[in-house]
Amino acid sequence: MLAGGTDLIPSMRQKLFEPEYVLDLRGVAQLRGIRLEGGAVEIGALTALSAIENSAYLRQHFPVLTQAAATVASPVLRNMGTLGGNICLDTRCLWYNQSLTWRKGCGFCIKKDGDLCHVAPGGTKCWAAFSGDTPPALLCLKAEIEIAGPNGTRRIPLQEFYTGDGENYRKLLPNELVTRVFLSAESADYRGVYRKLRVRGSIDYPLAGVAVVMKRSNGHVSDARIAMTAVNPAPLTVRVWSILLPIEDAKICRVREKLMDASASVTPGTERNSESIFSSNSMFCSTDVVNGSISNGEVHSAVTDLSATM
What angle, rounded to 10 degrees, do the helices at 252-262 and 275-292 form? Predict the structure, then answer.
C-alpha cells in the first residue's frame, strides 16, 4: 500500500520490495486532515508532514511534533510524505538499503533473502535501525494509533506498535492499515524540542534524534519525557522522573555523564554510515537538547535533576 511513496518507491527500485500490485491510498480523503475535539487532536494517517509542520494549532499546543516533522527530508518530500508513512517507516541498514547487484556481491542478510546478520555475525536478530523522526515526538506525547483490518479497528499506544526487531519491526499484519493518530488533551501544552544529528542539514535520515517535552505546574516541572530514534530497531522511550525543585546549573555535567553511560546501549554497529560521527556526537545531541532550552530553564533543570536519580 502506498501513502506518499517517498520511502516505498526507492525501495522498490532497489528490489527490496517486489509486490505484484501496489494500492494507492492517496484518494481516501477520510484518512487525511487534522481534527480538534475538546483539546484532543486526531490526525489522519495520510496527512502530509508539511501540513503538520505548518499547523498553527499543533505548533502552539504540540510543538515537539511540528519540530520533528520539519526535520524530515526536504520540503518537497514533506509535501508527499505522510505521518502514517513516517510511523511505519521501514528500518534501515547499510547492508540492506542497497541495489540488488550490491547485495548479491556482498551477501544477503536476515532482513532480505539471507540468514546472516552482517552487523552482528552469528546473531539471529536483525539490527536494522528505525529512523523515523516523528515517532519519538509522538512517544513523548503518549500518542495512540488506530489500526484497521478485516476484523474492524483497534486502538493501541504507539509504544506498543514496535517490536524491537529490525526484520519484523512493527505489529501490523499485511491486511492491516494505520488509519489515525490520537493526541490526548492531557499531552497538550508540553514545552518541547526535537534535535536531529545527521551528516547534512537536510534530506538525510537521522544518525540520532532526540525529543524532549516538559510541563510546569506551580512553578516546578511536573512532568518530563524523553524519546530517541535511529539508535535501535525501535524508537526508545527514556524514563524520566518528575521534578519537585529546580537544580543549580553546576550539576548539568551530571547529565552528560549519565547520557554517556547510556550510550553503550544505543550506539549502533555497522548498520549505519558515518559511525564515527555518531559515536562521538550522538549522545551529546541529548545534552544539546538540554542546553538548547536553557533559556526557559525547564528542560535544563528537569533533565539535570533526572541525572541525580538515575
Answer: 150
